[in-house]
Design goal:
CATH class of chain B: Alpha Beta
Number of domains of chain A: 2
Strand content of chain A: 25-35%
Structural class of chain B: alpha+beta
Number of helices of chain B: 2
Largest sheet of chain A: 5 strands, mixed
Distance between the termini of chain B: 12 Å
Number of helices of chain A: 6
Number of domains of chain B: 1
Oligomer: heterodimer
Helix content of chain A: 25-40%
Strand content of chain B: 35-45%
CATH architecture of chain B: 2-Layer Sandwich
Structural class of chain A: alpha+beta
Number of strands of chain B: 5
CATH topology of chain B: Alpha-Beta Plaits
Shape of chain B: elongated
Amino acid sequence: MAIESTPYATDTKTVVLLEREAANLTEMTIYRDGDKVHINSGTYTLIKPDGTKLVDAAAVTVAANVAQYTHSAANLDSTQALGEGYVQEWVLNHDGGHPDQNYTYRRMAAVVRRRLYPTVYDGDLTAIYSDLADLRPSTLTSYQQYIDDAWYQMLRRIRQEAGGFEYLIMSSEVFFDAHRHFTLYLIWRDFHSSLGQSNGRYMDLAQEHYRLYQDEWKRINFVYDYDHDGKAEDANQRQAKQPVVYTSSPGSLGRFRWYRRGRY
Amino acid sequence: MSVSFSQLRAAVATQIDALAGFTESRIPPEYFGRNENSVAHKRFAVALSASNDAGDRMRRAVGVYASSTVRVTFAYRLRPKDAYPTDYDAALDAEKDVINAVLQSYASIEPHVVIRYNRSARDVTDSTEYMIINLEFTALHMLPTT
């Protein structure tokens, strides 16, 4: 039977985190044409960094078209290696293809001690824009979707740009300002997009908050758990999110060059 | 019983102020657009734009029977995702509430005031953030001359 190649989308926003020594519910949702794809059945496998399987083709449960598997605390016991390199493999039989066809979806996972949680909520947005609650679209009861999207974008940026792992950051509060500005940028930009004009207050606010977000992002430094032992290495020595890179060589009168001339 | 211009303006403002969410502007009606965005929703201003003799006999002891044009301006916020038709219709409903409020009896505030509705004019700001509604009424009242 030929494999059908429709590009179904998964709900994977960032690396899946599994907390060690705790029960973890992990889920997979498949989307197509703006809706969840009906999942009939499936299996779940978790492959460890060394290639062995921690969970091997366990049957998933399906609730409201979401495939689920629950790791027990014993399954993720203290002998499991912490960190990156785990791979989740979901083999799902769902609507859309041949009835006998199984689709295999893979995504990266990490076993961690603790997750990093955001610190921004709706009240932090209305605290600086008192009329924001009144501007909320009638289809929404909160600005949570913007808060979440900003958070996921920041998590990906931490990994891509800064080379760090969010779950090793001990001080979640350092992201507050950047997260709030980025959320407000997404909200005002979305508002602007609805008005059909090239400029205006919403656009001005969006641009202002994007600049402020970029400024805050550069300034972030945090307490980091380098060796993943659950403790900060040195709480008084904060880690800059972004390394300082010097793009020029030392000047001709630099100390090192002068020393060499002096010797020779 | 006579009613001065300021008493008439205040009486109309009191009627509108009783509506849920409506607050009176701190900026004169002629400069209504200077209200800050954050507080402009359901802000209103009442102006007495013109007054005329209503044609009755003038007696100093009784007063002048006058006809005053009362202009009510208020702003209604249009949410960017619901500007039209949801909030546009909501603004029209608010307009109806304001008209009803202005036409209510003034017996408990200023007796002997009779008001009739003339017309409405509506505009949406360039930024599409607000609908500005102008209402015009004619008030018949006895202007005091003593």
